[in-house]
Amino acid sequence: MKLPAFFIAHGSPLLALEDNEYTRFLERLGQDLGKLRGIVVFSAHWDSPEQLITVDAQHETQHDFYGFPEEMYSLTYPAPGDPALSNRISELFKENNLAHQPVLGRGLDHGVWVILKKMFPQADIPVVALSVDSLRSPEEQYTIGRMLAPLRDEGILLIGSGGLVHNLRLLKQDDTPEQWALDFDAWVAKGLAVWDLPSLFAYEKQAPHVREAVPSYGREHFVPLFYIMGAADEGKRAQLMIQAYQYGTLSLNCWMVD
Predict the structure, then answer these.
(1) I need a labelling partner for 76 at 20 to 30 A (CA). Which of 48, 56, 126, 237 fits?
(2) Other CB atoms closer than 10 Å to residue 86's CB: what's the count?
(3) Taking every annotated instance into account, which residue ranges of this chain make up the domain Extradiol ring-cleavage dioxygenase class III enzyme subunit B (predicted)?
(4) Which positions ≥6 away from 182 have C-beta within 8 Å?
């Protein structure tokens, strides 16, 4: 059975400790997906001009954040890797003439493990992490995702981990979303509903409040959407699974595409 693919916002690393509507949604989603052969995650926290692939047999846990409660630094997500799956991804990239490199010993960044810790707390499903390139065009990002579409028929779950509205410089003390954040998310939702690639690819010129929602220093959080949309190019269907907000300017959304 062909698996859907997902864009999942990872929000603040504190999600790993929190119990709220969004974390409970992630827990249910993991339960509903059941046993998988593997998980592949395009992470906003691995931004590179070259396509990179983890090839570890066993992952360490990165604590790539600072200023958080001490408990955060004791959390681990000791998921195995899958060198065979990494090699399969490499083959798909080679077939499509995409330059790429294997990376050993990087560990899983919090863009990967925070959401997986909620979805699959046993950490017993093999994980392969992939970099994104925030400076590629949306068309290129979409094309790279499309290269991995065959994995959806092979029991592999594809995830893009980021955040559609992600502006750390405008955080508030409460979670009430700013109107501009709501407007931006609504614009993206409208485009996804009809798979309007020309508009979505031109988001930097067409989307309302794009400078606030996707600041120049935070583009890497938005672009996993295009990678994961590419993996669903055959069906071109999108469904919003949940919409919530943290600190007013971090949107917590999950889009399922198939």
Answers:
(1) 48
(2) 24
(3) 5-247
(4) none
Token pair in block for residue 220: 């890497």
What strands lie across the sheet with 156-162, from one edge to the other? 100-103, 51-54, 127-132, 38-47, 156-162, 5-9, 250-257, 238-246
Looking at residue 181, its amino acid is A
Residue type present at position 51: Q
Do strands 51-54 and 100-103 pair parallel, antiparallel, or not at all (unpaired)?
parallel
Tens place of pLDDT per residue across the chain (258 aa):
899 999 999 999 999 999 999 999 999 999 999 889 999 999 999 999 999 999 999 999 999 999 999 999 999 999 999 999 999 999 999 999 999 999 999 999 999 999 999 999 999 999 999 999 999 999 999 999 999 999 999 999 999 999 999 998 888 888 999 999 999 999 999 999 999 999 999 999 999 999 999 999 999 999 999 999 999 999 999 999 999 999 999 999 999 999
Give the residue among 158, 132, 111 at the shortest CA–CA distance from 11. 111
CB 113 within 8 A of CB 77: yes
